[in-house]
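Sequence only, no structure available. Ideas?
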Amino acid sequence: MKQYIVDAFTGIPFSGNPAAVCVMEAWPAEAAMKKLAMENNLSETAFVVKEDAGWHLRWFTPATEVELCGHATLASAFVILNYYEPDSVSVRFDTLSGPLTVTRRDDRYEMNFPTYELREIPVTDAMEAAFGARPVKAVLGLDLVCVFADEETVRNMNPDQDLLVKIEGRIQNATAAGHEADCVSRSFCPKLGIPEDPVCGSAHCQIADYWSEVLGKKQIRAYQASRRGGWLYCELLAGGRIALSGKAVLVAVSEIMVPLA
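Reply:
I predicted one. Tokens follow.
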């Protein structure tokens, strides 16, 4: 079985967010996929199988399966559109979050994702203790989004991972308005076994939605300020959808020698 390592949301190797993409002829046992994801120790390993209705996609962190992952979807589309269906301009995946379509547009790959209703929740002392700075606002959708006063606070943040686990949200996102980008963010996922997700696409279904309303613009240029760093280009669409696009680059192709029985 071939496994591809793709850096997503970047055109520069060894930056952005790395994902493993496994293209298989049939589904192995779920326990085997979890073990391979743990072995890879990347924020996500994507498993893709061609079925009668099209491509079926699942995502696993080193700890668990997740229902939505942006960078591993982008990486999977990059692999399918370059090495399996090079004459196609788009690919449709069936996922736990429903059908997801990715379209190649010049040197970027555009994903059509759902947005999530955001409700404001109180800023708590627990949030301040976990992030090491007090948010000016907190909203909760699929994940927790904490808004901070300035970009430097987000960039210099060194959160307490144990305390992050105890506050609301599957992923805890820190964001602020940016200087070169419309917004700057970081994503911390200790509940999923990921201290920090280098560039989180699914988080921007909420982050870009939030800043779109605050800034009064439909197109949001976002930068994830992790150590690796990466750019996301976001456009709010009608019907509770968002277009997320970014570049991708192939880093490695390997052969999995252990049968995933």
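The chain has a mean pLDDT of 95.
Hope that gets you unstuck.
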